[in-house]
Amino acid sequence: MTERLCDGCGAVLQSDDKSKAGYVPESALNNEHIICRRCFRLKHYNEVQDVNYSDDDFLEMIHQISNTKSLVVNIVDIFDFNGSFISGIKRLTGNNPVLLVANKVDLLPKSTNRNRLVHWMKKMAAEQGVKVVDVFLISAAKGIGFDEVEEAMEKYRQGKDIYVVGCTNVGKSTFINQLIQRTSGTNDAITTSYFPGTTLGFIEIPLDDRTSLFDTPGIVNRHQLVHYVSEKDLKLITPKKELKPKVFQLNDQQTLFFGGFCRFDFQKGMKQSIICYFSNQLMIHRTKLEKADDFFQEHVGELLQPPNRETLEKLPELITHTFKIPHEKTDIVIPGLGWFTIAEGGISIAVHAPKGIQISLRPALI
Ligand code: GDP
């Protein structure tokens, strides 16, 4: 069969894999004009569907943004900041300003100190060499924070195009669908066309006569926990509504298991509260530290689940990270899973997490 391209986005058409670019049902392949399912849904239902590319494809595509004069809107998941922040974004997007939009704010407890969260995200971005022009907290699903973010996009784009980038599962499609709904209201306002100079497509959504917003494919970042869990487990570890803290009074030489994904050893220090912020469906078990290794071996995938058996087949082994926590009120963040707060500090701890998942510390948000 000769290769055909989508009239909408320029991706190579194929009927084998729905999750990949250019998918179209086989029955449509004989039509004269063909657009892929993603473009079709955008055009007819104002609905963006994410397709995923390999890291290299993505990087090659995104790199073209560095040749444009535009505003880059980087969507991240508040719950998975380290996993969903694209550390090479500066190199990929050139000198264009980057606006960081942190999604899923609806999951945070109301008492969260938002200033501290924004400050932490700016700091984390700066540590990766990225100076962001501003940070916004939103909920794409609930439509929270859009007035502010739209105003900022207008301000920082200075009449130029906008490129929306983000890792898979951060809510990029939900964000764009929400924007389209708020700004256009009508289906007719949406057209698709492809980004010149690439074979892989960006989806173009006109903002006015001269400028557009481009949706780029979701990047697959191997450090995101989401890539190692089964669909069933992903549902269990993803919180659905505002997090409710669970508090444990812990002595030293005790261990907490967060399902079988992560383990916290309280090695040394004064008894204190450990406040846990995870999906309600992630069971937390307490054991004695000396028994924890055996307990894990015996129960992972069963009593300690999620992960279920399917996830365990691809989940990397747990790696131990040790920390001294000098300060009171410190959060230990496990990207993609949640976090726990050490109430008083002055303790030595170990955290065991899947290899590649980058644990970080921050001043407590609550
Ligand atoms: P994409 O892969 O970045 O395009 O992400 P999607 O838009 O497909 O969303 C990924 C997941 O995050 C889905 O399960 C969404 O329901 C969920 N999600 C998106 N936005 C929000 C939000 O504002 N709050 C919460 N709690 N979940 C969200």
Level-1 CATH class name of the largest domain: Alpha Beta
CATH topology tier name of the largest domain: Rossmann fold
The CATH H-level superfamily of the largest domain is P-loop containing nucleotide triphosphate hydrolases
Report helical residue fraction: 10-25%
Identify every distinct bound molecule in the structure, by name, code or SMILES.
guanosine-5'-diphosphate
Head-to-tail CA distance between termini: 59 Å
Q: Give a count of the beta strands, DSSP E runs of length 2 or more.
A: 16
Shape: globular
Mean pLDDT, to the nearest integer, reads: 88
- Uncertain spans: 186-200
Q: What order do the SSEs take from the amino end to the carboxyl end, as H and E?
A: HHEHHEHEHEHEEHEEEEEHHEEEEE
From the alpha carbons, calculate the radius of gyration and give it in angstroms: 22 Å
Strand content: 15-25%
The largest sheet is:
6 strands, mixed
Examine the secondary-structure arrangement and name the CATH architecture of the largest domain.
3-Layer(aba) Sandwich
* Domain unit count: 2
- Structural class assignment: alpha+beta
